[in-house]
Design brief:
mainly alpha; 1 helix
């Protein structure tokens, strides 16, 4: 059974569209980096920012 040419074209079009949609966030990220001049992959700073709140530490209570 031979697949119609229109079906093959539709599958190819949908595959290309899917690849474009899949790659779009990465493309937009690199465009944003190039506009802002940022290069986060070159940074060697591995500091972690932590948020401290009132209830982050456990307090032991004496119940004598």
């Amino acid at each position: 059974m031979k697949t119609p040419k229109s079906t093959i074209q539709r599958i190819a079009k949908n595959a290309l569209l899917s690849l474009f949609i899949y790659a779009l966030p990465v493309i937009l990220m690199f465009i944003t980096f190039s506009i802002k001049g940022e290069r986060p992959w070159l940074k060697k700073d591995n500091k972690v920012n932590t948020v401290s709140g009132k209830n982050n530490s456990l307090k032991e209570e004496d119940n004598d």
